Amino acid sequence: GMGAAVSVDTRKAAVMEAALDAGAHLVNDVSGLAHDPRSAEVVARAGCPVVLMHAPGAAGEDLHAGGDYASVVFDVFDALRARRDAALEAGIAAQHILLDPGIGFGKSLAENLALMNALPLFHALGHPLLLGASRKRMIGALSKEAPVEQRLGGSVALTLEGLCAGVQMVRVHDVAETVQARNVWRGLRDAALTDFADLPA
Known about the structure:
40% of the residues lie in helices and 9% in strands. By secondary structure, it is an alpha/beta fold.
């Protein structure tokens, strides 16, 4: 219809199949295709893009379980690489894979901050990155426990940090505000790279 890509957010192969049959364009699996043994083959057959997200307990029932890291940045990096390799092995094309470090899933405030600061490292995996930090609890934790509907400022701050780190896709709740922030951010970047006479008046 309106040029929007429809994403189905599920860990279940049957739900993926039904959604893709109904016209969804993208599968987003918070378990990185680990939860359902059939999911990788469903995605491979559909030939659609897939987001592989990191959540420590995602193969089981509790997405936040098991977040016990020796070094959160390297552990998440290695886990994403392993899920990526499994996807390739299942026949999913490399150019269809996006990776998401899973901000807020089974991670402490300090761990989330470490991941945000290390986002550029994840480009080494060779796939587009998706950042979903909008309205997450870490914003409340840094803002006198602001409730979820009062986290716009923090959401925009994390999204801009992601853009500075080169992430290719962001998942947000407050679309208009985020687009405005991106447009201003991009204007600043363009001005830094070009002669300012070339910018729109």
